[in-house]
Amino acid sequence: MTMVENVRNGLLVGAAPREGREYGEGVREPWFLDPREILRTMRLRWFTVLLPVLLCLGLAAAWMHLNPPLYAASTQILIDPRGLQVVKDGLTPPDQASDASLLLVDSQLRVLTSDDVLGRVVDRFDLAKDPEFQGRETLIGAAKALIARFTGRTDPAVDPRLTALRILRDRVGARRLERSFVLELGVTSDDREKAARLATGIAETYLARDAATRSETTRRAGEAIESRLAQLRDDLRKAEDKAQAFRAKHNLVGTRSQLVSEQQLTQLSEQLGAARAKALEAGARMRQVEGVISGGRFDSANEIVTNPTITSLRSQLAGVERLRADAEETLGKRHPSYMAAVVQEKALRAAIEAEIRRIAAASRNDFEAAQASAKVLGTTLERRKAEALKVGDDFVQLRELERQADASRSVYQAFLVRARELQEQQRLDTSASRIISQASPPEKRIGPPTPVLVAAALVAGLGLGLVGALALELLAGRVRSRRRLEGHLGRTGLDALPRAPRKAASAATLKADFGSTRGDVPYDVAVARLRHRLAAAEPGAKPLVVLVTAGDDRIGKSVLARSLALSAAADRERVVLVDADPKGGLTRDLGAAAPRDLAGLLRSRTPLGDALVTLPSGLRVLPRPADLPRDLAGNLADALLRSDADLVVVDLGLVGGDVVTERLIAEERIPMLLLAVSARRSRFSAVDRALKAIGPGRRARVVVTDADLRE
To answer: Whole-structure pTM over 0.90, yes or no?
Structure first.
């Protein structure tokens, strides 16, 4: 066992299960989510990944060739829906609701890109002779023309102007900027300067066309109004003549709005109202003055209080009363001064009463005069009313005739003023629309730059290639790596062997002398590690019988069986390698047959020593006879378990391949069963079938061959 003890630790890691994992059940993510598995798939199916990349790059190159670089120039136009109110009444109302204004701007957006405007631009820049606007010949166009020529569906001759108009319509785009009345116009061309010229030309043509349309609309409206002026003038003259004739016939004198009798009635009504108001006022004053006389309070009537004579007399009375009071207090009531003051006081009071009676008499006279005047005016008014009723019917007819004349006059005056205004508006541009941003030659082409396009094609190709490779790998269902198999089976820590050398376990190797075994080869180290793990799993088993089978990899399981036997032989162990494969690959490679009949030995239960072929290395091999009876499979198991060897490796056939293989797999006395799964050649479906055929009662140890030990 010196070979395993002297092997470097770095080489032993690959053959052992991963640290921290047991050989049991586990949960793994799908393999196509593992970056390492994705890289492995890309290495294995590099052509599948490379082909979409080349196709995408080719499509990108074809697209760049068939679509020359285009440049977009833009200009901005302000559409003011209010316009300029040069005259009092414009043709368009200056104030509109916001929704109506937006609809107007959207309508102008359609006018801006209409065929009327674009057709004038085609004529202005002579685009009918421009090769760009006549449709350059492309590969797709040439193919279509060739197909049409063969099918007899050639297109008729097309007007160059219509072709240029159609292409220009496709090259022009316009939109209204959000929350504004600004229109942005964009034009694409393969020439920077031409794109700017066309954008500016379309904007200028639109503004000029808009001004011309307004002028033309105003002119037509003015002509329509002037054509009606003569008729309206005649209608007005007839209406006025008819009203004047009716007035003269019925002797209706007065102003245009009122007759003389109506004026007199109005005046009399006003005078009567004033006279009655005056009489009421005079009566109120009279009653107030008379109340003062009867009540004796001089300061309760306004006429008395404001009278200057009474005011003077009352002032004098106040002075006399003070003198009387002073004389009474100082001299007494019998003094002549006191007596004189009393006499003056009586005289002043008598004068005040006389003045009040005079005011009362004057108020009574004013009241009676006002009443008489109101009575006279009422009588006169009633008489005038009776006279006015006589001409009422005639005046009604006159009013109707005058209203007709006034209506004709108003219409005629309105039409006359409007006609003069429209004549002047034809010479004025009332539009407030203007270019607020001139078009300039663009710096960059439309679309992504060439490096970006190539990078996008490369990324898209890699994505498609990777998805395609993963899809093909999923459809193929191959194992490819130990990680995939662990994820599929739900087991962790599967044994794995690297790819065997090209000459490993060949017939020449089997016959060679193992005195100088390659102990430092990673494959040999991995096999030795696996062999010792098998021995540790069955301690004390003598001999250790190992059955090696596979689901679909016949070569891989045979190489595994031979490698295990050679590894034990190199450690000077007694090893028997049994060829139980119905194909007899080991027997065919050795080119030797058993010295004695194997069937006879098994029937007689004789040890297998006489049927073994001993190689120079000390390895003993039991070749498969041409016909091994099926009923001797149990005897073969007994013979193997009675062998004097340390290790017996049985190279079985594929699971489900023959009866002998099935009998040995089902043999409960032989617990060690290896299921070889090649990472390069085996499929998941074959592994599933093999495990299902082995059954849940028999635990097969899965060994992944051709594995990458760096994973």
So the answer is: no
